[in-house]
Amino acid sequence: MPLTLREAHELINGAHQRARDLGSHITVAIVDEGGHLQALGRMDGAPPLSAEIAKHKAASVALIRRDGAALRQMQEAWPALFGQIDRAAGRPILAGAGSLLIRRADTVLGAIAVSGGLPQHDDECAEAGLAGLAGGN
Fold first, then answer.
1. Which segment, 15-24, 65-74, 127-136, is predicted with the most confidence on average?
2. Would residue 137 count as lying in a domain?
């Protein structure tokens, strides 16, 4: 069963709550398994560019099926290859903190990505979003 819009909003709400606890202002993007935007939540005070960054980070994770940390390792290990992936994908590929796959059992449902905070805050907020997803992840 695909990720529902209600679940996408639960992910965003969980991430936003953690950001409030950290004193951070973030944007959260949720994409489906094909990297298509399903929901976006930008907190008041989040940097304007954070919406585009979160969208591209989430799509990158969903399309390549690796969390942001693994994408960063790929980028460092194979910079020439990584530099070409965006052409194959037909969209920008961004590796960064705060981007995780959304799974149900062994099935990838999509991805969550957070932008706007410190890298460690983006990670914490994405993890909090996933933890708050009803039924576990």
1. 15-24
2. no
| Alpha-carbon distances, residue 88 vs 22, 63, 84 (angstroms) | 37, 11, 7
**Mean pLDDT value of segment 48-72:** 96
* Overall number of domains in the chain: 1
CA distances from residue 129 to 43, 47, 87, 99, 135 in whole angstroms, order as listed: 14, 20, 30, 11, 13
Question: What CATH number does residue 45 fall under?
Answer: 3.30.450.150
Per-residue pLDDT at 36:
96
Query: Helix, strand or coil for residue 133?
Result: coil
From CA 60, how far away is CA 137, in angstroms rounded?
Answer: 20
What is residue 134's predicted lDDT score, i.e. its pLDDT? 59
Residue 137 pLDDT > 60 = no
Q: Which residue has the tokens 């932008």?
A: 115
DSSP, collapsed to helix, strand or coil, labels residue 81 as: helix
Distance CA(83)–CA(67), nearest Å, equals 18
Task: Provide the domain limits for residue 81.
Answer: 5-131
